[in-house]
Amino acid sequence: MNERGAAMTLRIILALLALLAGTTGQAGEYYDRYDLAARTQGFDIGLQPLGYPAAMIGATMRRDRILLQQLEKLGQPFRSFAFRRGPDIVKFLGKGRLEGGVLGDMPTITAAVQDEIDIVGIAKLTTSSVVSREQGLMEQLAGKRIGYVEGSSAHHALLQGLNSVGLSEKLVTLVAMGVDDMPDALDKGTIDAFAAWEPAPSIALARTPQNRIVFRAQSTDFFVLSRSFTKAHPEAAREVVAGFVRALEWMRRSRKNAEQAARWAMADGEALTGKPAQVTIIQAVAITRREILDIPSAPAVPAATGKEPVLASEFRFLRRLGKIPENAPWQNIESALSYNGLHEVLGNRARYRLVTFDYRD
Length: 361
Hints:
Layout: H1 3-27, E1 43-47, H2 54-61, H3 65-73, E2 78-82, H4 86-90, E3 100-103, H5 105-113, E4 117-132, E5 145-148, H6 153-164, E6 173-176, H7 182-188, E7 193-196, H8 200-207, E8 212-226, H9 227-232, H10 234-253, H11 255-273, H12 281-293, H13 312-320, H14 330-337, H15 341-346
Parallel strand pairs: 1-2, 1-3, 5-6, 5-7
Antiparallel strand pairs: 3-8, 4-7, 4-8
């Protein structure tokens, strides 16, 4: 090739590289298309249709005509946005962007440390799991590829599991991916294990006896509201709390109601991902009953055990590992847990129509 031809080839290569760079830069995040600009009026909530029971709670709340009508009367129109993971919701909580959401324990702590939220109550009380294909013990995951969601409750469980056998994140290969992609990735051998919340572990275990749980850690989801919203619009915040309680009450009334909530949740998940739900209605209802509906005290936050406040051990663990700032104030967590909106709503059941149901299909 002569000098002129080489120069032409170089220009073509550079042009193609520039085109590829531009295309990559334009891809952005899935939530970039959402209208989440700050606004002074309205209630915007971040929902997670890929995790259960959160998916069924959110699907029911956003179809609650009573909730939507009450917020409209108060000048706070309701909008919902679907997110793939809790840490994405945290990015928008407060400052007039998102006023509420369902978060796992690690994202809840992250948001509370920033003094952005009030914790209403629990939306799940269960475990997150590390699921492996070939390895039967947690210590055997050293050097292996593990699928995870950065900053999630399952990430917290993974950190606990690694720490329990003297490993750290540096001694494994972390592979960031969507929780709904994890069972397939394990099947294909793209990863050797994954850390996830339901229904991903149940889906993987149902596929083959080779898949097994090698570690479980307690995991709690919380329904949270932005502090700016609860302070500026306390009555609207209580109506939202009522909608949350009403969703649980309705699903508890009958299996038929729970199954309908599962169908709504599966449709919401498919709208987000463009893929059919991997979980069955039977699995979704079983998970939701086990992890929230059959817990008599829910959605009240569990009382502190002994001298150990709720979230205290998780807070210390994450601070020790550098996942939250070393100087993060525990007082911000205490403040978030002190919100009494749930108590006020439960004390006025008739006023907030907790057993009156009107859901659109």
